[in-house]
Amino acid sequence: MLHHLSFGVSDLVRSAAFYDAVLAALGYVRVWADSRGVGYGIEGGGDKFAIKLYAADAAAPGPGFHLAFAAPSREAVDRFHAAALEHGGEDDEPPRLWPEYGEHYYAAFVIDPDGYRTEAVTKVGPAEAP
Length: 130
Fold this sequence. Notes:
Layout lengths: L4 E5 L2 H13 L4 E6 L2 E5 L5 E7 L13 E4 L3 H13 L3 E8 L8 E6 L5 E6 L8
Parallel strand pairs: 1-4, 5-8
Antiparallel strand pairs: 2-3, 3-4, 6-7, 7-8
Helix pairs in contact: 1-2
């Protein structure tokens, strides 16, 4: 249903360092960059997520909004969480199983440096991991 999504950020260098690290942990890469933004996706593809510089006008949505990134494994979710904390993110919920969302729903939630709530999630069980 969604083609792409972008966040307005106040500091492009800081946000790019954050998203370079957390999205690399999930297997995503920069697919374009210029002085106003950075796009991320799968190697050789278009962007599905971008950050765009809006300086003082950047504002994260309030309660109820978050963006979930697909992770290939539980280990990738763990790496996402660790990278977020290392690059200026705030812990919102550490990696764990969330049985209320499904038997193998494993996720971590973080808040990026601009206040956006993000999640990394996999539904791959431990025996199914690639």
